[in-house]
Every structure is written in structure tokens, then in C-alpha cells.
Amino acid sequence: MKTTVKNRYETKMLAECFFEAIKEKGAFVSLFGDIGAGKTEFARFVIKKAGVLEDVTSPSFVILNEYKSKFFPIYHFDLYRLENSGLSSIKEELREYSKENVLTFVEWADFGAGELPVDKIEIKITYDLENFSDERVFEFQGTNDYYNDVIKKTIQSFEAKKA
After folding, report:
1. What is the pLDDT of residue 92?
2. CATH class as words, domain 2-162
3. Residue 32 CB neighbours (<10 A)
4. Distance (Å, rounded) from C-alpha 26 to C-alpha 24?
5. Which of 63-72, 73-82, 116-125 has the lowest average pLDDT?
6. How far apart are CA 69 and CA 155, in angstroms?
7. Angle of CA points 3, 4, 10, to nearest 5°
8. How does DSSP assign the chain, residue by residue?
């Protein structure tokens, strides 16, 4: 399923709708998109909606940021700088953080090379490279009934709020 956000405010709205859909059980989320597409921004808005008070920063140089919320533990990975050997050293953690009642974001999931859990939500974020507008397309894909339900609830809630 796809939806379009026109600006940062709508990205925040979409992230808040997403959080509402996952707040009971958590999720494992693989994020795809070019540099500047909005992967970190989306994750940041979801994490803040979970009640995290500390600064939410990109894990680009540290590979993993961990946050505590009143709902569940939150893990935010960035695989961009990992080589194959680095990825193999964290693959157990990636699987560990895919359990229920945990929220895990993996940015640059395309570098996961088959090491990511099978059950997940994939979110591909694209933007118009020619016009450099703030508009982004979010394409969601779930791998099981729970994730497909989360996606449906998220999109429906977001579209209703935009209207």
C-alpha cells in the first residue's frame, strides 16, 4: 500500500498513525530509501510518539541506538556502514530484536543481505529527485497478517486525518 506525504508535518502525522497501529505489540520495520528520503525522520517521529524523551538521533556512526518507552524497548539500527563481516556480527541481535513487544527500525535494510527476520514491515520512501520537493511516497509491505493489518490501519487513519 502506498501513501504520499506533502511535508514534514504530514510525515509526523503518518508516523503517529503508524505508532497507534503498533503500540500493542511492536514491530520489526525495514526502511529503504535514498539519502535524505526521510528514513530517520519517520523513525524519529514514531519513537517520540512512543514517549521517548531523550534526543532521537541517526545511528549512522554507532550502528544501534536503544531507547526505553513505556510501551516496549526500541532499537534503531543503521546498516549503511557495515561490511559483510560487521553484519554477521550483529545478525543475532537483529533476530533477537524481532520478537513481539519490541519496536525495531533498520535503516538501509537493503544492506541486510538476507540476515533480517522474515516477518517484518518494509517501508520504501521515495522522493522526486528532479524537483526536490518535500513530497514523499511511502510504500508499505507486510509479510504476515498482523503487519498487513498494521499497514491498513495506518493508511486508513492517515488518509482520514489528511481529509
Report:
1. 66
2. alpha beta
3. 18
4. 6
5. 73-82
6. 24
7. 110
8. -EEEE-SHHHHHHHHHHHHHHHTTTEEEEEEE--TTSSHHHHHHHHHHHTT--S-----TTTSEEEEE-SS-EEEEEE-TT--HHHHHHHHHHHHHTTSTTEEEEEETGGGGTT-S-SS-EEEEEEE-TTT--S-EEEEEEESSHHHHHHHHHHHHHHHHHH-
* Distance from the Cα of residue 29 to its chain's centroid: 5
Provide the phi-psi class of 114: left if phi over 0, else alpha when psi is between -120 and 50, else beta: left
User: Closest Cα to residue 150, out of 126, 119, 127?
Assistant: 119
Q: Which residue has the cell 493489518?
A: 149
Cβ proximity of 27 and 20 under 8 Å: no
| pTM of the predicted structure, to 2 decimals | 0.89
Q: What one-letter code names the amino acid at 62?
A: V
Ordered strands of the 64-68 beta sheet: 2-5, 136-142, 121-127, 26-32, 102-107, 73-78, 64-68
Q: Between 45 and 83, name the one with better pLDDT.
A: 45
